[in-house]
Amino acid sequence: MNRVLIIAEAGVNHNGSMETAKNLIDAAANAGVDYVKFQTFNADKLVSKNAQKAVYQQKNTADADDSQYAMLKKLELSPTQHIELIDYCSEKGVKFFSTAFDLDSVDFLSTLKLGLWKIPSGEITNYPYLKRIALKHDPIILSTGMCEMVDIENALSVLLKFSICKEQITLLHCNTEYPTPMEDVNLNAMKTIADKFGVKVGYSDHTQGIEVPIAAVALGACIIEKHFTLDRNMDGPDHKASLEPDELSAMVKAIRNIEKAIGSEEKKVSISEQKNRSVVRKSIVAATEINEGELLTENNLTVKRPGTGISPMLWESVVGNTAKKSYKPDDLIEL
Q1: Is 56's pLDDT higher than 90?
Q2: Residue pair 300/321 in contact by the 8 Å Cβ criterion
């Protein structure tokens, strides 16, 4: 299995603070992720001023009555702040990444030459947006939250129409409830997506805890995306469905272990267990004293460890032979 790409989604959990954003980068770098991802948007281009918050946004923010616009306006990152965060990521040894939520933001991120695009679930039906990203001709990660299979098919057709090839696309199975109830995860859909569309698949997780993304890797996810925060009790729309730094580190460690454990599809004796085979397998031995020339029978033979003698799988070939020497109980039978 190839190395799983792990994206730590800082998103808007910086709460508009550059100090918090840098602390998030520190936590992501310490955890050993591949990318730390933010969100790039202009609230004026993203949402109308009278659009209401999602239910989870209302629950997780102190100013529950504010509009989406008011909430998002406070969470914008300026172009200068992007450059500052990119430099800080480079200093800390982790890659910077961001999701654009409007066309101007797509064009801005293009100037940063990140070489990779993330299309969020909410934009999967946004034709002009899909077209704009496809025309950049870079690899694309596409989240499929809130989607039926036809939605995914339609989005793929747009990307393919503008010269993106399937090898450049990874589809992320996703549920956009924050946090996602376990009964709504439906990890098996990830395999359905892979089989139906013939593309690489991954998983964008919004459950609480680390079990589900680890299971997704075992099921074939090549990318894991997971929200993280410095403190789940912070005010903001996404903190409650995010991992804290110690949990992020535990998830990364577990995923790297699962990568090793998956191995190949061939069933064979591993190097580490070869030394145990003769110790725990069994051989045909004498059950009683057996004299030379005596018939070997079901009654004077038995099977015991170690497995350094004749395999019990040859039992029928041994029974009925004549002893070529005398044996004491537990002696290995020789032919």
Answers
A1: no
A2: no
